[in-house]
Amino acid sequence: MNLFDYPANPTLNLLPKDGTVNYFGKIFSPEEADNYLNRLLTNIAWKNDEANIFGKTIIIKRKVAWYGDQEFEYTYSNITKKALPWTKELLELKTTIEAETGETFNSCLLNLYHTGEEGMAWHSDGEKDLKKDGAIGSLSFGAERKFSFKHKQTKEIVSMVLEHGSLLIMKGTTQTHWLHRLPPTNAAHQARVNLTFRTIVF
Ligand SMILES: [Mn+2]
Question: pTM to 2 decimals?
Fold first, then answer.
């Protein structure tokens, strides 16, 4: 079997309009991807996600972590987090995807979905401290999961499968015009780790 079973075309825009999404497919061999998955599960300071809803703190099953060049503060769901310093594997991954895409990143939000029961509802990454129209590099390890975009006005939906060891880039006006989500599924029983490399501005 070839390491790269489904060659993807990273120059293809998967969105029909109002933004750019490029899928690079599997950029790591299965062995490298397994190795990163294990290292990330072990070495990342995973914490259950929390949301502040009407003044009440809700504990979420999905785990998260936040790393960066500096102790950036990052706020979402009304909770502010301070970035931890890069680990060895995160720096390796950042260097790899910077070379692959020609973009640069200064921070990374990680999500751990333990099984297919865990997902992420429709949202866009429109936080005010993110660089406007900056690229977001999304690496996936572990269970293959469907990922969808929905146009905010036309409600048009575009979906793809994010493979183990794969890279997806969202850039341009994608966050302004499109929502995205990770739907829950009965098909996935293994964990998925997702890393989204971003650029934070002050
Ligand atoms: Mn997102």
Answer: 0.93
